[in-house]
Amino acid sequence: MARTARSRRLGAAAGAVLATAALACGSVATAATASADDGPYTFAVIGDIPYGDAALAAFPANVAQIGADREVRFVAHLGDIKSGSSLCSDAYFATIRSDFDAFTKPLVYTPGDNEWTDCHRPNNGTYDPLERLAKVREVFVPAPGRTLGRATMKVRSQARAGIPENVSFERADVAFAAVHIVGSNNSLLPWTGRTAPTPEQVAEEKARTAAGIALVKETFRRARGEGDQAVVLMMQADMFDPTTPQVDLAFGAFRPVVQTIAAESLKYGKPVYLLNGDSHVFTDDNPLDGTKASPIGLAATWTSFYGVPAVPNLHRVTVDGSGNATDYLRVTVDEDATEPLSWVRVPFTG
Fold first, then answer.
1. What sign results for the dihedral spanned by CA atoms 198, 185, 147, 89?
2. Which of 106, 260, 78, 273 is nearest to 174 (CA)?
3. DSSP SS3 for 291
4. pTM
5. What is the pLDDT of residue 172?
6. What gap in Å lies between CA 79 and CA 95, rounded to an integer?
7. Domain locations along the chain
8. Between 273 and 18, where is the model more confident?
């Protein structure tokens, strides 16, 4: 049954008591099963960080700065914990995991292509990407259904489908989903020395994409059933990057994902926010408004390339990354506002 704004406010005091109790136990109890009635709140978003030795050295200070932001309830990292030309080693993963453990707030992390898909490259160590994906899950998803960070948060996980990093949760009438969709054409760019994806590549992408689409559909279904005021989808891939040179190879695998987001957004009818990294340059737009041009070599617009109608209620934000990763996105949620989400970029000081 959909809840009214009045009923949400009446539940705020009880929600605050539960949250306080959870913090006392070293965790934040959020709603994997029901929305938390806690009014306006703030979360932080980063992605494509740290890239390179200098950024790696500065990352603990970045983590501490976000942790010191008293308004931030949780943090989302949108993938790419390293550059695409650095080693995908166990030691590096362990270093980043240690940095992640220093977050004082719950950390929702969805993998990027640099930490597994692109690890076949010689300058990455000539790894088997699927072996690296297994290692990413081992290191960064040790307890499916619970986030990283010192104060963990319960989430719904697709662990039973073999995709434990795919999670969803609710906070104050907003439905969230972190979906493992990555750049490099969602992992289908051929590995070093090959001209086409391997059968194992294709099978992995097919299973992960199917799970991601199921998660998107389930998130919208819950949002409609609960009367949520917005849906937030978080993923690494920029499925609308106009600067990608390999246009014929770079976007084809995203079609079913974009088509699902478009159809579900239109059915939902309320604000939908897509937060992504991958292309490194802050972008605030609606790529499916029917006018945004796609790269040369594709159809004229993104809507025509993906075969979808215009989706007026979709808002996309790409976070700064790589050399531009000099800030975090501070997002404020107000369920009663016309636009439930608003944001500002906060410069890192360390």
1. positive
2. 273
3. coil
4. 0.89
5. 86
6. 15
7. 5-347
8. 273
Phi-psi region of 274 (alpha: psi -120 to 50; beta: other; left: phi over 0): beta
Of residues 225, 260, 224, the one with CA closest to residue 239? 260
Residue 260 pLDDT > 60, yes or no? yes
Question: In degrees rounded to 5, what are phi and psi of residue 315?
Answer: -125, 130
Question: Selecting from 3.30.420.340, 3.40.605.10, 3.60.21.10, 3.40.47.10, what CATH number does the domain 5-347 have?
Answer: 3.60.21.10
Q: How many residues appear in the chain?
A: 350
CA 239 to chain centre: 13
Cβ contacts of 190 within 8 Å, gap of 6 or more = 196, 197
Q: Which of 313, 317, 327 shows the shortest CA–CA distance to 265?
A: 313
% of the chain exceeding 90 in pLDDT: 82
Structure tokens at 336: 């009663």
Average pLDDT of the residues in 48-64: 98
Per the CB < 8 A criterion, the answer to whether 283 and 346 are in contact is no
Mean pLDDT (the chain, rounded): 89
Q: Which of 184, 177, 169, 98 is nearest to 133 (CA)?
A: 184
